[in-house]
Amino acid sequence: MGEIGLVDSDGAKLDAALTRIARDVDAVFDAMLPIPDDTRAPLVEAMRYAAMNGGKRVRPLLLVTTAEMLGVGRDPALRAACAVESIHVYSLIHDDLPCMDDDDLRRGKPTTHRRFNEATAVLAGDSLHALAFEILTAGETTSDPFTQAELVRCLATASGMSGMAGGQMMDMVAESSSYDLREITRLQQLKTGALLAASVEMGAILARVPPEGRTSLRAYARDIGLAFQIADDLLDATGDEVAAGKALRKDDEQGKQTFVTLMGVEGARNQAEALINQAVGHLAPFGQDAAVLRALARYIVERDR
Amino acid sequence: MGEIGLVDSDGAKLDAALTRIARDVDAVFDAMLPIPDDTRAPLVEAMRYAAMNGGKRVRPLLLVTTAEMLGVGRDPALRAACAVESIHVYSLIHDDLPCMDDDDLRRGKPTTHRRFNEATAVLAGDSLHALAFEILTAGETTSDPFTQAELVRCLATASGMSGMAGGQMMDMVAESSSYDLREITRLQQLKTGALLAASVEMGAILARVPPEGRTSLRAYARDIGLAFQIADDLLDATGDEVAAGKALRKDDEQGKQTFVTLMGVEGARNQAEALINQAVGHLAPFGQDAAVLRALARYIVERDR
After folding, report:
1. I need a labelling partner for B163 at 20 to 30 A (CA). Which of A246, A267, B54, B190 fits?
2. Domain chopping of chain B, boundaries
3. Exposed e or buried b per residue across A257-274, where buried means at least 16 C-beta atoms within 10 angstroms of its C-beta
4. Global pTM?
5. How far is B24 from chain A (nearest CA, A)?
6. pLDDT, tens digit, for every residue of A54-64?
């Protein structure tokens, strides 16, 4: 997807932002998750193992970048970002379970249930799920209860049956259903798009931007969310397992409909590019301040893992 | 435990309250969980199956009774009660999974993963978990963001690693650890006590009682929470499987330390009675208004399921 290309200065800003967010997210989780001096220790070790596992931190970067662009301080934004990442990480732990995708590797390391055991993995996921909402209602994130409640509402809706978990269910029955492009799009908007969109929206909520002021940011998030999933399908179909750090070609083995099976490799690439260009267009009102969000949109479709 | 006995009029009030809360909780879940017209249908069917499964509704009754005693309307209290019950039900679904307790029966019916499948059960639990926080930040529960945020904070803390999930982890390693009475007490305060205490506290939060005004209600909740677990251990050791609707004698089979193994049947019974008397004492400031809370405390140790 070289045609999209990164403006060099934006790309350099993105590289720096990715390095910094990875370090910062790990530091926040490290501080939030001290190992307790009792038999809960394996639970917290599993939470740390899963949460501090070298992810790309796309969602935290979206949230922190949006929030900083709108004038929010980095520390509260980072805490809210770790709430979103807690939800993302819990979903990865549960998705990897033997009864779900039965994955042994995640980011090149044993999955949580392989490293610990299944029961601990289920509980670590559940605990990270609760942690997200503990974080969002803590005074260190924001002292404004209106903002706390709005953050919780946004994240809970994006992660439950009307969001991520609902999309995951649609994905589970995908093997026995023959989804068309409209249905696959809806599935992915729930499964991946909802949490990515919530990341951007929560940045705006922290900045106390009212709902009507979030329209262009929501449109940006919706477009990159879909492009993100198309890129994932392309990665599964054409990517390199070593670079990706996980098993690929699973969609094909499972006979699943994806953007690639429905549109072909070239069609899917073109669609992802069109979506990214459209997403970048939505950032026009923010001018130079949106450099990292622009670069992040492009990174999403160019990444190899 | 006949010595505690129920004052007849309190007992009649409790019977009526238990019947009514069971009907009301089902009605709220029924309205909240319409089956969607897409492939998420099995997810919502599993959520309904687990949530509308004839539970005792002890937590909802604690919350609604406390809230009504303090002047809160029944409808908002019922919604908050369904948030707590969503957390309780998700924990039952996950606890029953093959990798956890591997239970086939729950309330006399197949457990969720037996009726559906494991993956759907994991997701239904996760979705009920998120639903709890969606409910608490919805305007129909309370329009006051301060109350919304406080409800979320209370429930998230009670359910995560410092509460229910943490206690569940301690319980999982109980077979290989030899806990003493202090450690078993701590385990149960987290595993069961935290959510029961949150139920009472959330009733007071809805009534906008400030933290310092909740001391006696918290003490009541702490005592009945511990008594509840002692009663559970007694039920496991001496109860009737048909009446209980689930497999019993599991603690003994697994060689686990419980209140009964540590204190003996008589010692455990005496301790439960003492705790209930102490709990009822904490309700003195509320006089006749606390009739149902008093009766509920006694019911907790006298129930057979």
Report:
1. B54
2. 8-302
3. bbbbbbbeeeebbebbbe
4. 0.94
5. 22
6. 889 999 999 99
